[in-house]
Description:
The protein is an alpha+beta fold.
Amino acid sequence: xxxxxxxxxxxxxxxxxxxxxxxxxxxxxxxxxxxxxxxxxxxxxxxxxxxxxxxxxxxxxxxxxxxxxxxxxxxxxxxxxxxxxxxxxxxxxxxxxxxxxxxxxxxxxxxxxxxxxxxxxxxxxxxxxxxxxxxxxxxxxxxxxxxxxxxxxxxxxxxxxxxxxxxxxxxxxxxxxxxxxxxxxxxxxxxxxxxxxxxxxxxxxxxxxxxxxxxxxxxxxxxxxxxxxxxxxxxxxxxxxxxxxxxxxxxxxxxxxxxxxxxxxxxxxxxxxxxxxxxxxxxxxxxxxxxxxxxxxxxxxxxxxxxxxxxxxxxxxxxxxxxxxxxxxxxxxxxxxxxxxxxxxxxxxxxxxxxxxxxxxxxxxxxxxxxxxxxxxxxxxxxxxxxxxxxxxxxxxxxxxxxxxxxxxxxxxxxxxxxxxxxxxxxxxxxxxxxxxxxxxxxxxxxxxxxxxxxxxxxxxxxxxxxxxxxxxxxxxxxxxxxxxxxxxxxxxxxxxxxxxxxxxxxxxx
Length: 510
């Protein structure tokens, strides 16, 4: 007997959970299905920004920027344990650049209106060198500081999952939708699903089915047998490299305002490391395991070194990660950097609702738009409540990293440490405790070593070699909780090493 819901959402990334939280907050029986782990795709591999998008002003996308700035305010309010206000410094190399970017930042602040989170200011050359001692000063004239937000993307996603379920929703990872069909020869109302881990086949039905599968949007439309030749998504790949914080010691994030490919490049302090990125290259098809190209890594490193006094080398790179953006497919655009980050909600003739485009910052607004779309057409309208709704574990941080990302639940990890009499770290080069792994299994639906090292902690993003070394410890801790044997542990370690190849510079440069 298949279980019935009001709404089924396919896709367990930022867009999917934006829809899910909105739906359950309005009182709908809601099921979310994710084929892999929550956030395995694009949502774990972002640049970690909460922003309106300063560079979008160049394209006169004022409405998009304003929307992002409004959502930035809600983002920071609703998850104080996972977000923070971050200062961003733009180094300028001419009087013209100083004037140009000052005007841009002032317009950015103006568009934020009552949602402004800080006032911009200028620094002269000496002041800039005082806060950025490693910046190359050979061409430096001045700098400009403004404010945006920063967050931990997948930790926020896990917090959304727990909030969704606390409100009565059901979220299933490792449940792959194989078919979307109609049980009544009318509109689409049923999904056929396979549990990837057990092989069990299941069916669920709902009044409305939402396709929120990001870069895989068109593939999801295909399995619904929709005769639609239009491709809704253009796939753009973005790569980041990670250094130790010492390569550019500063509390400021740095925005390099113009690169050779027409983008901006960010140098971001994050979890006591430094993220540098991103690129923007068009891909013909999506991949669940995207692989950075050597040319992307070289480009980021070269651009970084144009602004750094002490140059970085490939040996300094601790990890590489690569994500793919689901952009609304334009009629003609050769350069994905120029494609708008707007989102759209569309419905097929058989009733499949698809949301495409957007970015992390506006995930809540995307969910609101999807529910408004559903209600306008089919259901009595209910008021959105999510703009000022704290996440289930939200609290002003009392702990330091790494426990602060758990919010109220940090105490649960301390209890597990006492229970196991274990205060050990996973690895001397990683900031994570072994007790966290147990918590991930018990409370956060972690099913694999990859789930823990890539998405419950951010170990794979911070130091891939240390993560590989920690994999056997994680497997052993998980096996005890899950009742698995040594063969399972061995297979988990092998699987993680295969996954890690796309983060490991030695593998990427082979």
